[in-house]
Amino acid sequence: MLINLFTIFASSFVIALSGALMPGPLLTATISESSQRGFVAGPLMIAGHAILELTLVIALLAGLAPFFQQPVVFVVSALAGSAILLGMAFGMFRGLGELRLSWEGQQKKQNHPVFAGILMSVSNPYWIIWWATIGVGYILYSRQFGVWGVVFFFAGHILADLAWYSLVAAAVAGGKHFLTDRLYRGLIALCAVFLVVFAGYFVYAGIEKLQTLIA
Q1: Taking the CA atoms of the chain, what radius of gyration do you get in angstroms?
Q2: Chain centroid to CA 111: how far?
Q3: Which stretch of DSSP H or E encloses residue 10?
Q4: What's the pLDDT at 179?
Q5: Do 51 and 114 contact (CB within 8 A), yes or no?
Q6: Burial class (CB in 10 A: 0-12, 13-18, 19+), 149
Q7: Which of 130, 36, 125, 55 is nearest to 84 (CA)?
Q8: Is pLDDT larger for residue 53 or for residue 38?
Q9: Predicted structure pTM score
Q10: Residue (of 106, 123, 122, 113) closest to 33 by Cα position
Q11: Over the chain, what is the mean pLDDT?
């Protein structure tokens, strides 16, 4: 039993880490938040991410997997997600002129990292698709070993995200001492550009899926 639980934990950790290493809205937002708030932004972003994923795991266990697998869900999440990303990018671009390396007076204008972690996760339609396919398969396998099977699966999954994004946050926060105001604004602008790119890709993917539904 313990060997099975450890196998579930280890494989879940490796698979989640491989996904976390891929660039996406959550990574971009973590870099942006960490440059303003320091290392703590990384774990807080993943706390929000974990809250959302735990809610989704419970929903999948309750039998909602077929709903999340419907093409229309992908279309809606892709188009809505692109709007969220564009809105965040616009806010980042708009505030560039006021950004300075003294963050105390600026943090009130930003989303709380926990909320940002939730927002950036739900805005990515491929996050939903991953959970409705690979995730639900893992949950069904883990459930064979009872509650502890699901717990070890989820723990491995979240710890992989926490490890990687904490490392990213530490690297960004550690490098802030070498940033000038100009470089700092450039970093935020670059993050905003990436969010626009992701938004554009999600619009394209959503419209393409919508066309297949209509055809």
Answers
A1: 18
A2: 15
A3: helix 2-20
A4: 61
A5: yes
A6: buried
A7: 125
A8: 53
A9: 0.77
A10: 113
A11: 84
Rounded CA gap, 132 and 56, in Å?
Answer: 9
Q: Which amino acid is at 47?
A: A
Name the one residue in this structure whose structure tokens are 């550009």.
193
Residue 45, both tokens: 């972003």
CB 113 within 8 A of CB 44: yes
Residue 150 has pLDDT above 80, yes or no: yes
- Tokens representing 29 are 């937002």
CA 85 to mean position of chain CA atoms = 12
Given a contact cutoff of 8 angstroms between Cβ atoms, the answer to whether 98 and 55 are in contact is no
Q: Tokens standing for 95?
A: 């505030």
CA distances from 125 to 4, 21, 56, 85, 202 (A): 31, 17, 13, 12, 8
- CA-CA distance, 35 to 109, in Å (whole number)? 14
Helix axes 71-94, 181-214, angle to 10 degrees: 160
Give the angle 32-126-116 at the CA atoms, nearest 5°.
30
What is the spatial distance between Cα 92 and Cα 192, in angstroms, rounded to a whole number? 6
Asked whether residue 23 carries a pLDDT value surpassing 60, the answer given is yes
